[in-house]
Write a structure and sequence with these properties.
Elements: H1 2-13, H2 34-38, H3 52-55, E1 66-71, H4 77-87, H5 91-106, E2 116-119, H6 124-130, H7 134-142, E3 149-150, E4 155-157, H8 169-176, E5 180-182, E6 192-200, H9 204-214, E7 220-228
Parallel strand pairs: 1-7, 2-3, 2-6, 6-7
Antiparallel strand pairs: 4-5
Helix pairs in contact: 4-5, 5-7
Amino acid sequence: MTTKMFNDFFDLFFPRTCRCCGSTLLSSENQVCINCLLHLSLTNFVDLVNNPVEKIFWGRCKIEAATALFYFRKKGNIQKILHEIKYKSNIKLAHQMGNLLGIDLKKSNRFADVDIIIPVPLHPKKMRKRGYNQSEEIAKGMVEYFPKVINTSCLVRKVDNKTQTRKGRIERWNNVADIFSVVDPEPLKGKHILLVDDVLTTGSTLEACASKLIALEGVRVSVATLSSVVE
């Protein structure tokens, strides 16, 4: 009761606002108001075999299952959320969105035998500059509802490549083709690994990660992203 009274008093002078629309949040709301959450476009891909996210990897690398929770819309709420997470150090929002992705994955038997979650790694230089990896923070939120082991040490980004923004598919692939490396393969052998990222565009980054992991003995790879541009 004391904590609630303090929070209510604090909110009078420093009201919490929705990261999408700017409206004042209710005490039961966190980071994003219910109205904006309801206007996020769900893909419903999690139980759909051969969904559009899986098709993007056809002929490129063998993916067991793939899904994205939301459709990415330019200037839409999911873009605002990703901007908050990636560029404004909003780790709490990353965890909240990870919760939603974890709840979605838990509904599907297609991801039930996942052993390890690997967030797409950042280069150490970028990690030091930003202070966190947004994909790792999303994964931390996921495991509250989708309890799996998170591994951030076995797969590393060895090249600090240029941004993927405004690049086409071929340019994106050339930009990431050999920037990842497995430095400790033993904990991964024979495992079903779930790669996690914030957004899927052409799939080049995830393909580059998956190709290194699939080369290991007995490894299977699936993919889950918070959002996707493919429909």
